[in-house]
Every structure is written in structure tokens, then in C-alpha cells.
Design brief:
The chain is mostly helical. The protein has a domain of 26 residues. α1 packs across α3 and α2 runs antiparallel to α3. The protein starts with a helix and ends with a helix.
Length: 46
């Protein structure tokens, strides 16, 4: 089974949708951010 956040992260990584678009549709934005940028929150801001 694949979660919505996993699917959104895949679309972001393939540059089909922007991260901002994916966050707007996500029910768990923190989980989506972790999947896209990794486990470290600081990594997303670097």
C-alpha cells in the first residue's frame, strides 16, 4: 500500500508538481516534507 504522502513525494521528486502544490493537498505536511527532503528538518531549509 502506498500513502497519499508517498505518492505526492514521488510527484515532487519527478517534478510533476511543485512542493508547494503537494503541501497544499497533503493531510500530513510534516510527513510529506520528511519524504521529500529526508528526516532532518534543517536539510529542507539548507
Amino acid at each position: 500500500m502506498v500513502t497519499m504522502e508517498q505518492s505526492l513525494a514521488d510527484l515532487v521528486k519527478r517534478e510533476v508538481v511543485s512542493f508547494e502544490e503537494a503541501i497544499a493537498k497533503s493531510g500530513k505536511p510534516d510527513e510529506l516534507q520528511r519524504l521529500v527532503f529526508g528526516s532532518s528538518p534543517n536539510k529542507a531549509r539548507a
